[in-house]
Amino acid sequence: MVAEYDANNYRQDPFSSQTSAAQRNKGPAIGLEYQWGWLGLQVARQKTHTSVNARLDIPLNLKEFVPKIQEPAYFTGAPDLPSRPTLAQWQNDSDRAQQLATALGKQDFKNIRIAMQRDSLVMELGNGRISNVGRAVGRAVRTALYFAPLETREIKVVYTEQEQPVATYSFYDLATLNDYLLGKVDRSRLLQTVNIKPGRDEEVQPLDSRTLAQTLREGIDVNLLTNPEGDLIQVTSDDTEDNRFHLAPKMGVYFNDPSGALHYDIMAEATYKRRMGKGLYLDSALSANLYNTITEVKQPSNSLLPHVRSDIADYKRVKSPKLNRLLLNQYMNMSPSTYARVSVGLYEEMFRGAGGQILYYPNANKNWAVDLAVDALQQRDVQGWFGKRDYQTVTALASLHYQLPMGITATMRGGRFLAKDDGIRLEIKRRFRSGIEAGFWYTKTNGNDITSPGTPAKPYNDKGLFFSIPLNSLLTLDNRTVGNFSLAPWTRDVGQMVMSPGDLYEMLSDPKRDIDSYDGLGNFAERPDEQNLPQVTPPQPSYHPWPMIRLRLEDSGNRWLELDDKGAALAAAAVATFAAAGLDRPVDRFFSKRQDNRLIRNWGKLGKDLPIAAVALSGTAFALGDNRLSNTGLIALESSVAAVAGSSVLKLAVNRARPGSGGDSTWRTQEPGESRLQSSFTSNHSAVLFASVTPFAKEYDQPWLYGVAALGAAGRAASRDHWLSDVTAGGLLGYAMGNWLWQAQRNDSRYRSSLIATPKQLGMQIEVPLR
Description:
Protein name: Phosphatidic acid phosphatase type 2/haloperoxidase domain-containing protein
Organism: Pseudogulbenkiania ferrooxidans EGD-HP2
Number of strands: 26
InterPro entries: PAP2/HPO, PAP2/HPO_sf, YbjH
Number of domains: 4
Strand content: 25-35%
Oligomer: single chain
Mean pLDDT: 87
Domain Phosphatidic acid phosphatase type 2/haloperoxidase: 632-742
Largest sheet: 15 strands, antiparallel
Number of helices: 16
Region (Disordered): 1-23
Helix content: 25-40%
């Protein structure tokens, strides 16, 4: 039973007269609710009406909420399985390797390369269907045990994506491996015989590209509803070299046009992918319109920027068949942690071009990656073949991807966007245990989009929500297909990106996540007793930072009490501030006469921007540095916050007017009605700048950083935003905060914590050295 009081004033709702909301009155409401699994039902009585509501709850944080009743079983041999050969028989008979490759191909493995290197059986392969890397590797080695030469002492599996090595799994004890697959030994025993390295193990020579597996599925398959891609109906054909043809109906939507809130189109789309060489792929897509309502969109774009996206309705309106994509992608692996891609062709419906991307994805236990993508682009015409428009541009975007607790990933992109506007784009997303991701993006550029929905006073910034739904969570068999959806309030030109022809981070982030999680083996043996392991069913994501925060607060408080020279330091700061106050007027008069000087103007800009850069660099050090650098960056951020808080208190207390605001006294108060937090004493910029650099100057013995901070802080006086005494007091305050917190928290080992995950325990370890 539920009850509430509805206090909404429905008559003030937008479109209340059209929606009948104006007929509703505020008042009490009562109801009955019943929840059964995913389904909920409610019957309620409000003051003016009765309602019946039904809902469906999707358990995003369950790893699997649809049973995999159609999942093919792992390889178990066959009645006609040949006996294992000797090494000499293997080397003299190429059919031996081909039999293993064919067995792997029937399990959806792609780009299979097999060789014996001394007494090691090396397999290089990827899997086009199985979503977990550990489980795919488990099926590969289980199959290999049936075919490997009798003298084999080790099995190495180089797992690949688009033939680029992601990790090398080495199994040194085949007897233990076989016993684990049969359920005779536990996980801890297996882990003593396994080694996982990022990329390609330097001891493993790249295997040649000759085809070993016989071509499979040579015919055309027609599937209804239960196909791995989740399409209503599809026609497919593929083989073990990752060549693939796929035909299925697709639906697209178009939001927020003055002609109506929602338009859609239904089309038939045929895609064809073909391997042309080592890491070289042809990717194409052809679509034919079946039905659409986008022809109702009549209003042309009002954007003053180049129409890189706002003319999308013109492209969608064309009903004739269109070539949406035709490009070549060359993927390359430059080191175990560095990947690259070069692309040329028709990228998407609106743009063609040539470009590339380079990605640095560090080794295990790192939670960040960086990439740079540069593309020279030409806008295509609306007919969708090889015609063009006059617009050309070069986009260049550098991206930092950082994994936070609770399954959250933050991505910051900066550079030049499609409409030749420069700026940054922030993306925040959360990944649930089911693999479903939800997030939002916000872009800030100098595009200055002032036409509706933007205004000259408030230009429009691109923003929106996006969802990524792996169909593995919704279907009755495992697969790697992902549905991506995004929803923006308006289709505008500011802050837009070209559709990536093959984003490396998106391609590698999921397998890298599998490899870096716990022991990297996942659901390796598919044994019933594995299902309760955190490697297979991770615990609910949680993050409890309070123990570490409490330690830092305690250390900071204790250090403050231990400082014996607080009074002397305060007196020295007061003397320095009063001495600077004596120079307030002559210094301001000097800069007042030189405001047109280019050097002075740039100095003022430096004073405004340098504190922001210092905070950004401190955050980068905290996020990406080693233990020492990360701890120093965190102290710098804490010091900056403390300095701003202290400066704000002084602003509220003193309420000093800024230079150039009129009056004879340098210590006059602000006019009534002006915000005290915007007053002149002290300078927030100066406080933040010194608070940021002091921990680094102390920790790494770099006193020259104080000179940089002093130069930047003086820029606030050069621009006449502050008096000299404001800058002096702010700098002293920032130094005091940075020095205090650095002394209190410099022992970074005190705050280190690590997650312990073994087959028998799961917990958090915090190292606290005894004093």
